[in-house]
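Hey team,

Filing this mostly as a record. A colleague (T.K.) asked me to run one chain through the structure pipeline before their review meeting, and I want the input and output archived in the tracker in case anyone asks later how it was produced. No errors, nothing strange. Just documentation.

Input sequence:
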Amino acid sequence: AFLLIGRGVALIFGTPVPRAFMLVASDVSSFVFRMPPLLAIIAVTAWRGGWETAFQMILLVAALVPISMGVQHFVSILRPFALPRDRFNPYAQRVDARQSSNGIASLLATLATALIAAPFLLLLWLSSRVAEGDYAPGIAALACLGAFATYAVLIALAERLLVRRELRVLEVLLDDSPG
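Output structure:
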């Protein structure tokens, strides 16, 4: 969640800004990198399936991405891991067991995202089916606004958790032990 490597982490955590701002800034920067592939998928969907299908894909992204961004902070805060000493290869294996449990935590976060997003996905699915689609724009907007409101709640909860665990997160991120 932090997109920060090396000693710059201590500098960022040392600034007097609310931790929620850091979490949201991390999400905005990661969304910038997620945007090109999402736009490519939406463009192919529009080309092959039409603009109506592409618009449904945009609504799906608007309902899923905020919730997934909010949930991923919990994995980063609860199970942080340090990069290897050279900090150049994030895929290098560590000797300790911290690396293996992150896969399980990520799987649980994916399941939590699906569970939290389910009501909004149901609203998106129902939007075109209720009253022959007469209320589709309103129901779709409600689903997307609900997803963004849920994102705000997840950020507030993650901020509380980060404030409590900040020293432990920093200790792990700044770990310079070999292997």
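Quick notes for T.K.: Helices lie at 8-14, 19-49, 51-78, 98-127, 136-173. DSSP finds five helices and no strands in the chain.
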